[in-house]
Amino acid sequence: MTVLVTGSNGFLGAALVERLVHHRVEGIRCFVREGSDRSRLELLRQRYPHAKIQYYVGTLSRREDAPGAVRGVDTIYHLAAALSGAPADMFLNTVVATKNLLEAVATENPRVQVVHVSSFSVYGVADLPAGHTVDENTPLERHPERRDPYAFVKWHQEKVLKEYQRRLGFPLLILRPGVIYGPRGSAISGRVGLQLGGIFLHLGGSNLLPLSYVDNCAEAIVHCAMRKEPGISIYNVHDDHLPTSREYLRAYRKRVKRLRCLPVPYPLLRLVSKGVEWYHDYSRGQLPAIFTPYKSANLWKGNRFDNGKLKSAGWRQIVPTAEGMRRTFDYFREKEY
Amino acid sequence: MGCGQIADGHISEIRKLDNAEVVAVCDQENLMAMQATSRHGVPACYDDFGEMLRKETPDVVHITTPPQAHLLLARAALDAGCHIYVEKPFTPKYRETVELISYAERKNLKLTIGHIYLFDPPALALRELVKEGVIGDPVHVESFYGYNLAGPFGRAILGDGSHWVHRLPGKLLQNNIDHLLNKVAEFITDERPRIQVHGEVRRTIRFGDVRDTMPDELRLMILGESVSAYATFSSHIKPAAHFLRLYGTRNIAHADFVARTVTLEREPTLPSALGRLLPAFDMGRQYRREGWKNVRRFLRSDFHFFAGMHTLIARFYDSILNDAPPPIPHRDIARIGWMMDEIFRQLESSTGAS
């Protein structure tokens, strides 16, 4: 069995490659850009000298690089996505890149299984009541253009994948993780809050944080892919025993470093968001609309989460949440000092 | 036409004008056109330029594609009777620049280039000082443009050896030094000034392909009949400054395009030690005045990132409506095109880098 992993040298990608090795996948073809940092993958090659971890060098933003990458593989794990940058560039490097990959699938390997790592951000929870439980039946975002660029591109990426699946009929597995965290990831999710100057705005209050420790997330991806379900199957991915935003932040401050925090309760955040949106429109974009009532409701109104479907499929959390947080905070503390 | 990063700026700035509306966007990749429509609420999107021109019959076309496509698209737009705003760099080669300018002139249609910093508030203020005679006669110009290779565009270039920037004769430099040269060309008005070039690759070589030969530092000495200039492009000097110093027979002006300030260094009016004591206070007073000027602009919602682009577009549209000369003389566009050819020719012969 040979698989292709896009975004393989990223934070989640490297963890996924390691889980694939654990599951004794014979050939792992890692799609990497020319000159990209492959240190995480190199480490795995040293740690598992018998694993067949190979590089396929190219870029998905170049249509002609994709056919060779997808030829002869049984499964494509598609993790590549832009996490930051200008909105148009993020779209190009995520959505158009996905289209290029799928065009190659259409010509070279139309029956291949495609495993796509999406995001919770594709759900549209702004209009749902606070405390609504997010599961696979939660409606998708109706106004992606009103969300941040990352949510916008992930929503369109899923849309393109579903369109090609309908046309070609390949098995499509979509995993929607919550907040993927771990050593070498990002220390604090935007769902907890944002750093503004020297002050950390704590926006998440007592909302549950849908954490997914990077190894648990990678395990969920491989586990679900091995079920080989036909058609489109969708799973939300997060761990059990979720902390609240406040508990996570408290633990971070205790174990990593002190932060000057300003808690912003949701009603106040909503008011501020209205003001920011008004000023953005009034000043014709002099300051960016980083907060709008719509964006804030999606991220900070507060939801509950259900990973029942993932567990029914047989996934088990391999790293307990407390242990995952401990490893993460140890890493960041070491980095600090 | 072309829905990449800079197109967002164009759409936003056009929509702030009362005398124009964006009727359509176009990109050969239909998903890119769609995303621009979706995020900006533009009424129509196309992936076929000819179809867009036929159906929408726009008055003006903004060409925001990679420069290799500028000539072809611009000619098609001119053939359709549209005025054109072409992003910098205008075309990859000087002869194409001349060809395009001639073509627009033969069609009697307006044309401009995205030299936005010529219309940023510091550039406008400096031009006023020159006009009022505060600087005296220009003697020398120092133009500095710092570039952050770790920024989103820099990362995109370094992350992809097939990026269109690597296919330009002057690579990264060609995509940026319009911002150096257009400020120089305003004061050195010679048709063919003498140019001395030094370029180098300062960053660590690591790709083993075309990216390793991309110069990221450039020093120029440009000598006109009566005015000389130093021009610096740097990807390593931090912070990434962006300024113009104009040395005149009466005063020296410093226009800072990052802080959006213009200050003057004047002859001391007092003798001896007192003359050395006062300039620092004078400079402090000037910066305070410039700071408050910016605060007032901010309060008037007149302190946008693309202030220069906004003014340039407004003036270009006014020139169309009033059949007046365009805001950037065609001669300057052509001269800058020639300077670029000359710079990259010298770089190629001296280092083989181009």
- Say what the CATH topology of the largest domain in chain B is: Dihydrodipicolinate Reductase, domain 2
List the uncertain runs of chain A. none
What's the CATH class label of the largest domain in chain B?
A: Alpha Beta
Please indicate the percent range of residues of chain B in DSSP E strands (runs of 2 or more).
15-25%
What share of the residues of chain B lie within helices? 40-55%
**How would you sum up the global shape of chain B?**
globular
Q: Could you name the CATH homologous superfamily of the domain at 2-184 and 210-243 and 304-321 in chain A?
A: NAD(P)-binding Rossmann-like Domain
Q: What is the highest CATH level, the class of the domain at 2-184 and 210-243 and 304-321 in chain A?
A: Alpha Beta
CATH topology of the domain at 2-184 and 210-243 and 304-321 in chain A: Rossmann fold
The CATH superfamily of the largest domain in chain B is known as Dihydrodipicolinate Reductase, domain 2
Q: Which regions of chain B contain 5 or more consecutive residues with pLDDT less than 50?
A: none
Structural class by sheet pairing and helices of chain A: alpha/beta
Order of helices and strands of chain A, N to C?
EHEHEHEHEEHEEEEEHEHEHHEHH
- Could you tell me the radius of gyration of chain B in angstroms? 21 Å
Q: Overall 3D geometry of chain A? A: globular
Oligomer: heterodimer
Record the strand order, biggest sheet of chain A.
3-2-1-4-5-7-12
Helix content of chain A: 40-55%
Written overview of the protein:
The complex is a heterodimer of chains A (337) and B (354). Chain A contains eleven helices and 14 strands. Chain A is α/β, with parallel strands linked by helices and 337 residues long. In chain A, helix 4 runs parallel beside helix 5 (149-168). The radius of gyration of chain A is 20 Å and the shape is globular. With 354 residues, chain B is of the alpha/beta class. In chain B, 43% of the residues lie in helices and 18% in strands. In chain B, strand 3, helix 4 (70-79) and strand 4 (83-86) form a beta-alpha-beta unit. The chains are: A alpha/beta (337), B alpha/beta (354).
